[in-house]
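Hey,

The postdoc asked me to send both predictions to you directly instead of through the lab channel. I've kept everything plain text so nothing gets mangled by the mail client. Protein one:
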Amino acid sequence: MKASPLNLRVYSSALCVAAFMAVSSMCSRCFAETNIPSGGVITLPIDSSAKIVDAEARVSLSGIRQVNGIGKQHWQLEWCDSVTGAVNESFTVQWGNESFGDIFDRRFMRVSYNSADTCVSIDVNDGVNLYGGYNTLSLRADASGTQVWAGDNEEVFVGTFPAVAPSNMLRLSGNRKMKVAWFAVECEPDKAKALLTDITDIDSLSAYFAASNDPLEGMWSYLDRDTDERRAVPGGNYTFAIVRHDDSHPQMADGKIAYDIIYAGGAKVNSKEWKPGMLKGHLLATRFANHYDVVWVDSMMDVMDDELSVDFTPPLILSFEFPIYHARLRFAKQQ
């Protein structure tokens, strides 16, 4: 078994405590075995803040005919604003013939991307159904662009199109009757964005710490570890700030959170995603002096709270205990 990077990235699913940590989860929605009349639509909501959106529709369109050039029959996926009704982008599926009636004629399926300022089309001859059967259109959209696959039995890669604008609804429609085998959307949350705080400059906390009489508040740096590397390994030599929690936050008003842990640096695993000022976790008050329960964000930005605790040995040592993973990390307060 490969050890997981500690901070911690674990094999079992970590529990997400929604009352303590506002980190979105994966959302999935779908339709299956649906008949849509000509001009009809079905829609699915999208998380407009999602890091990655995967969408897929498998559709059979009636009335497809061979023509010279591109036919009028089509179905499409449109990225929309559900409030204004505006269509930000669309991906359209059509069929046509290169030279209908000619001995060298080839039939094709066209996949087109359309936005306010861009129109891109790619014709596919192989691996797609060209005569009215089912075709699947699969999209993976992120900030870098939208990858598109299409096919009958096995999908082929069509190409990469421009990134779609943030949208909160995906709409499937066509200008002929459609048989929809399935229509699905899955949104992967932007975990990094969910962990952002108002602290954009760790150095700006210096004056606050200088005026604080709380021995826990301040900057803390990795000191040493005692870990079972078959279960977990460090994801970096971490530095973080501990600041007293502000209970005025509406999601944190239950009063259990005593301190916030703010990431400052040192990540090696997933280091490109971690930025100073992001929330690394919370210390939760217990009835025992200098002992806290912990909600911890691991190196892959998943939330953990499974029997985790911290012991504070005044004035300089914090010991993070991960008993299920046979791990202890110690941090020293910076002077």
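Protein two:
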Amino acid sequence: MSTGTVLVARLDSMGDMLLSGPAIRAVARTAERVVVLAGPRGEPAANLLPGVDETFVWCSPWIDPDPPAIDRDDVARLVERLTDMDEAVILTSFHQSPLPLALLLRLAGVKRISAISDDYPGSLLDLRHRVEQAIPEVDRALSLVEAAGFRLGPKDHGDLAVLPSLPDTRKLTGPGDYIAVHVGADAPARELPITLGAEVAASLSDRGDRVVVTGSDRCRAEAVAQGHGLNLAGRTSTAELADVLRRARVLVVGNTGPAHLAAAVGTPVVSLFAPVVPASAWAPHGVARRVLGDQEAPCAGTRSRVCPIPGHPCLNGVTTQDVLNAIKELEGAG
């Protein structure tokens, strides 16, 4: 039964949006139209997701780590854009509140609003859903949309996915296969250590593997490539990066959006995972993976954007051989 136009809101970054993909597909299965409300960091990923008919972009001051000053007219324009929505599902992480957006949706006259909320929502939510802590983010989102009446198709197993029509990047990567190493993350605590990345790239090159280094900061990526890998940092759109990762045999990466982009294109992931957030919720979903890093380190569960422990021991304790062994295991599993 059709449910008209449904807004699915996910206001944070690339990885969060990609992890919301299965929930969006579930909504799209019965909605006449799906509009995704994305933050500017998540918009490029939203545009790659199956089931999305239109994307609205708005920078949320209670979600984005570096938002602009709150502008009353900007909020009013958002409310006006939301008036055409028949229903809304607000997807959040466990530490985020859906209630500020729910208030704006009420002002817009949206008829039914669903969200996960531990806080008392008053009249802001029609469906106040509860879930266990630290479950996979994909399952968290699917649990909410299922409670709201949306379900995946019988042949959809809830894996991450992007649209198949990706640009061909072989002119960038060159011929032949390669292992990808991604540099950087929105939160410094969660990125692949540069020294480790450089040692891994050199070791892979020494044994005859091609290495492609990706990221947004070309200088930091060059510190990893150092003549041992092709530096594509800053040279790809999100769609092009998806194709670069799709062609890789394995991706070595911190806990950041490209780890989930690799999962969405079926590439195995060696995840250098700082436990500032739980791996049970945020590790790459639905692909072969190896999670490295001390998950019991003192920083565990702090949600820190910058490592609070001198020496960053959770990741700096990982050796080059640990990473090489993980790559070998993943390639052997294939």
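Summary for protein two, as requested: The two ends are 41 Å apart (CA to CA).

Thanks,
C.
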